[in-house]
Amino acid sequence: MAGQRAQWKGFMKFGEVSFGVALYTAASTSDRLTFNTINKATGNRVNRVFIDSETEEPVPKEAQAKGFEIENGQYIMIDPEEVAATIPESNKTLEVDAFIPCADVDDVYFDKPYYLAPDRMGSDAFAALRDGMRKSKVAAIARTVLFRRVRTVLIRAHGKGLIATTLNYDYEVRSSKKAFEDMPKIKIEGEMLDLAKHIISTKKGEFDPAAFDDRYENALEELVKAKIEGKAPPKRKRVEVSKPSDLLAALRESAGISAKSDDKPKRIAANANKGAGRQRAARGAATKTASSKAAPQRKSA
Length: 301
Prior knowledge:
Blueprint: E1 8-14, E2 17-25, E3 66-71, E4 74-78, H1 80-86, E5 93-101, E6 110-118, H2 123-136, E7 138-146, E8 149-158, E9 161-167, H3 176-179, H4 191-202, H5 215-228, H6 247-254, H7 264-294
Parallel strand pairs: 1-5
Antiparallel strand pairs: 1-2, 2-6, 3-4, 5-7, 6-9, 7-8, 8-9
């Protein structure tokens, strides 16, 4: 990729085929505004200093070591060389373990995306793998040492190249059962469900990442600009939050239905059913027409 430095270079292997690849960062926070910590009294930048928790004396970098707490305030000292020795050796090979259906991996396991591109030679093998995965609608599960850790990577066809997403380990992903264990069992039906489906149908669209702006980042830029120009900081607009008396009233309001028109929700549901019926009838007629055209015509004797 022109103008971008590869984060990792190595080989990708599937079966007996191997070829050179390069990994590039797909998402970055480098364009965000960053702030320094300043001493209010002097206006000077503040430097970070590590302080001994008991003596309150500064500890230089060469005197610092890793430690694991075994009891309150008691630590096992780990030498930096011992830490370095635990880092697995890299053979610089991204080896495919299996090909799986694209939807098999829950996106809660997704960690960080990278673009995977061919590195000089091996473009034909790269393209063969990319097109083969796209046609078969599968993704590849592979493993290698990335950034001093053995990582599992999900690889998918993406445009002209591949996208490799590092995956969280199972122990790193919290259980969804625990997250939702306090959720009561509620079944929504009738008018409430019809209204929710109606609102959803009127809001259908397509995902366009360019349509979503980072409001926080934009606000920070406006604040910094105002400060540089000596202007008053921009005032935040007050957000008016509606407070409906109940969920049904809120759904009716969202669907543009007044509380008095009790028959309108029924008409919405009826119209939705009629529309679905018309679509099914149209598909049935189209199928019959196509079948009659495809059938051979008999000639009269």
